[in-house]
Amino acid sequence: MDILPAADGVPLDTVLLRTFLEVVDSGSFATAAERLALTPSAVSGHIKRLEQMVGVDLLTRTTRHLALTQGGDTLYAYSRNILDLEREVRAKLRGAPLRGLLRVGASEDFAGTWLPQVLQRFRQRHPEATIDLKVGITADLLRQQERGRLDLVFGKQCSRVGKSGELLWEEPLVWAYAQHEPLDLDRPLPLAVFPDPCIYRESAIAALNKAGRAWRLVFESSSMAGCLSAASSGFAVTVIADSQRVEGLRLLGRKEGLPALPVARFYAFPRSDSPACADLIAAARRAGQQGRFSPRPLRA
């Protein structure tokens, strides 16, 4: 059993910490149990033991809702770092820097915005490693991974992606449009989106339909650069993660009669728990932390 000594001498069990993170990331005891191959009662028992160990309540629970307490919020951040460090230590102890090929898939927005920082960190650790990168839609990349063609996939979770991944961070989605172009608010909102399935597309359409706001699809592209070009030219409004804003775009919102959007959650989907995948995932998570993105989907 993996344990880490706490300040008062009571060890923190990393098995319990993993269960805690899975419950928070999935938002459900039942889903966490399925992902961990445990029973829901075993997951509940892990959380109770962890709460007894740290001496504070970690979650507030009702029949339909889970939320982190203040103590749970603190432990969540530390738990993620503890397990990342444990994984990093194990990878280092397994041998010398990697020299083989790592086959990576990444959604186009991830590849264009965050991947450079991730690769820079990874290369510092493994200067002789080789990466074969494929860029595409998350669902398509995961299908390639199931066929054994990819070792690791970085992407967004959307309703049609059934596979559960490791949560890296979450950040707000925003409406973006040309900085200096007028937008006719009396006409259906012109949309530029990724092809289906895409969490940006799903979130935009669901929010507009719920708000009763008329819209029409005028531009579709599997390229983030394409959607950004459509927005910055004034051809259409697009939806992006907040960190993807570029010069020449302005944010739209309540003033323009547009509804609030949910957060986007970015995940790593490893094919195996290899040292290479572990190091690349840790590098991605650190990039998210440096960008001050939130790693937790639960809100008190």
TrEMBL record:
- Xref: InterPro entries: LTTR, LysR_HTH_N, LysR_subst-bd, WH-like_DNA-bd_sf, WH_DNA-bd_sf
SUPFAM superfamilies xref list: Periplasmic binding protein-like II (SSF53850), Winged helix' DNA-binding domain (SSF46785)
Where, by residue number, does the polypeptide cross the bilayer?
none
| Coiled coil (UniProt feature) | none
Checking Gene3D superfamilies in the record gives: Periplasmic binding protein-like II, Winged helix-like DNA-binding domain superfamily/Winged helix DNA-binding domain
Q: Which UniProt keywords apply?
A: DNA-binding, Transcription, Transcription regulation
Q: Carries keyword Transcription? A: yes
Q: Which residues form the HTH lysR-type domain?
A: 12-69
Q: Could you cite one Gene Ontology molecular function of this protein?
A: DNA binding
Q: Which family does it belong to?
A: Belongs to the LysR transcriptional regulatory family.
Protein name per the record: DNA-binding transcriptional LysR family regulator
